[in-house]
Design brief:
The chain is of the alpha+beta class. It is built from 3 helices and 5 strands; from the N terminus they run ββαβααββ. A hairpin with a 5-residue loop joins β1 and β2. It starts with a strand and ends in an 8-residue tail after the last strand.
């Protein structure tokens, strides 16, 4: 199973194994990773699973679907490495992926 490392807002790292074909969002929710809400359940209809994909992993991902790009406009604290974790399906090639979590997913 591919491993994903989630870097929390305090800098703590948590590495978990995620089944092939599951998403980065699934891995976070299934393992109690704080910082990803996934309000829409992975339907690509919100932006509460926003994350920052660290290099070199960001270059290994397919380009975002137009629906993802439309939703990223609403992600808080967007950066060039921003992606929706519900749209990143894990493959063996992504084993070791590192994602950083944003300070917030919803407005305060």
């Amino acid at each position: 199973m591919p491993r994903v490392t989630y870097i929390g807002t305090n800098g703590d790292r948590t590495t978990v194994e995620v089944p092939l074909g599951d998403t980065v969002m699934d891995g976070a929710l299934d393992n109690g990773i704080q910082g990803i809400i996934g309000q829409c359940g992975g339907g690509c209809t919100c932006s509460t699973c926003h994350c920052y994909v660290q290099a070199p992993w960001s270059q290994r991902l397919p380009a975002p679907h137009p629906d993802e790009l439309d939703l990223l406009v609403y992600a808080l604290d967007r950066e060039p490495a921003s992606r929706l974790s519900c749209q990143i399906k894990l493959t063996e090639a992504l084993d070791g992926m590192v994602v950083r979590l944003p300070q917030r997913q919803l407005p305060e």
